[in-house]
Amino acid sequence: xxxxxxxxxxxxxxxxxxxxxxxxxxxxxxxxxxxxxxxxxxxxxxxxxxxxxxxxxxxxxxxxxxxxxxxxxxxxxxxxxxxxxxxxxxxxxxxxxxxxxxxxxxxxxxxxxxxxxxxxxxxxxxxxxxxxxxxxxxxxxxxxxxxxxxxxxxxxxxxxxxxxxxxxxxxxxxxxxxxxxxxxxxxxxxxxxxxxxxxxxxxxxxxxxxxxxxxxxxxxxxxxxxxxxxxxxxxxxxxxxxxxxxxxxxxxxxxxxxxxxxxxxxxxxxxxxxxxxxxxxxxxxxxxxxxxxxxxxxxxxxxxxxxxxxxxxxxxxxxxxxxxxxxxxxxxxxxxxxxxxxxxxxxxxxxxxxxxxxxxxxxxxxxxxxxxxxxxxxxxxxxxx
Amino acid sequence: xxxxxxxxxxxxxxxxxxxxxxxxxxxxxxxxxxxxxxxxxxxxxxxxxxxxxxxxxxxxxxxxxxxxxxxxxxxxxxxxxxxxxxxxxxxxxxxxxxxxxxxxxxxxxxxxxxxxxxxxxxxxxxxxxxxxxxxxxxxxxxxxxxxxxxxxxxxxxxxxxxxxxxxxxxxxxxxxxxxxxxxxxxxxxxxxxxxxxxxxxxxxxxxxxxxxxxxxxxxxxxxxxxxxxxxxxxxxxxxxxxxxxxxxxxxxxxxxxxxxxxx
Lengths: 385, 263
Hints:
The complex is a heterodimer of chains A (385) and B (263). With 385 residues, chain A is an all-alpha fold. Chain A has two domains: 1-184 and 351-380, no CATH class; 189-199 and 231-347. Chain A has helices at 3-6, 10-36, 51-65, 67-76, 85-106, 115-118, 125-153, 161-184, 197-223, 230-261, 264-274, 284-302, 304-308, 310-337, 352-384. In chain A, helix 9 packs antiparallel against helix 14 (310-337). Chain B has 263 residues and is an alpha+beta fold. In chain B, the strands form four sheets. Chain B has a four-stranded mixed beta sheet with strand order 8-1-10-9. Chain B starts with a helix and ends with a strand. The chains are: A mainly alpha (385), B alpha+beta (263). At the A-B interface, helix 6 and helix 7 of A face helix 1, helix 4, helix 6, helix 7 and strand 6 of B.
């Protein structure tokens, strides 16, 4: 089926070339980072994780979000989603690929990465995160590819895939749960130390992932003869609506516990993010923008009039994607590290090279995503005849 | 694709999977054996000082000004090749002085005496008995030495993921954001310099203990710091802890720091 990714229109080649240019820029800057060290980023002794890990965390969510089309189809026999499950699985592949790349880009000694498996450490959550992420990648490649190939050949997919498909559903939940455990099990980091962190991660994942999927479906309908379907898009939109509501609700639970309990170590991080602390407030406008975007997203997706209008729905999806990205990407990491364990404030601002390297990783992911979607859509067009 | 080619590819895939999985199984089988391995990173000489759990007592009453901390900090940073960077983001420190409310956030009441507000408190790695950094490290590059409880770093194994820095509630760890060597003057040839991309921190002078010397900061403190075995009732630290009111940093987190402060 790979041949389907190679043959395409001028527009397709142009888009892929554009992505490769961005990958190239990112790669050159990464070479600089390899040479100089992570000092070219804005990270510091106090904020020892930054933009890379933030994007990693967000993208784990997008990857897990793919399960929102797989689950209704395979567990509830919701037939309409049969048409788009492959898109969810391929989105998961591209997202996990970006996640893994972000982790590698963030390492101080990337050449030693195999030490994680040479000296497997069962008490380290990071070890388990590599297991669940690679496992999820493997499952989705195996399932997505084989099911699509079977569809192309007009046969039922292999029987041995069925248990793997069922396993992939809780596995999707596991990748974001384990990723949340990276943070919420750390003593002395008040902002992250909340049992609701994994549920919060999952709710924003199930909003951001399907929102991106809706946008991709709308694009596919424009650029190919395959229509993912109005019903499918509307069902996804309802999932997005519920998930974004739950996400904001979880956040408000967090706010209540933090401020009603009045414990400074927990309040200071939220204060830093939303009103500024001791004169530092670089994230204040970002966080309020994020809140506004998520609330707007709720209004647009919950209201049937706006949800059913696909133009407005597209806007809603962009709004929700950006809102959750700021919340989880920017705020979650910087907010957790500031103030520091010694209650000092050294603000983290990503540098230009850091942002371009991150863009390069995104472009790499979208390059793979485009190729995979090209294959999937190509097969769908063939089958339609 | 014909079926034999497919079969070969499947076999290749399976065998590479088996190769990746093997070390994981090994880990289940020999986790204890590995812990013993790491115990002998620094070879002990005949005069080596030993303990069940090394601990430090800092008599904060005897320190008045930042000036008085300087010799201790310098002694440590000099022998351990800790670089000096102008850019605060790249800063590396093993031991330093900070304000009371930074060393013990949430502990101090209102209207503290001028003296407590002003004077510096020495902070360093606490060599916790339940170190969260060791729990977090995915490669055991940081580990708690079984023989004497020192939380150590293997600079050659560290992959630079900085999970330990997020896990440490005391901000004790630094990361080499760039090559430190041009910023070390002069280099002490008896202690390794680090490469860029690895984490480092205080090692309770494991290399000095191995040859019968006390930690450099203790030696430079002229009696203001005491060092000894926490589990030896006759040790100097136990005597001080038993006869003075001492506090530890963030005791409620349950990490069991081994650095005690007489206040």
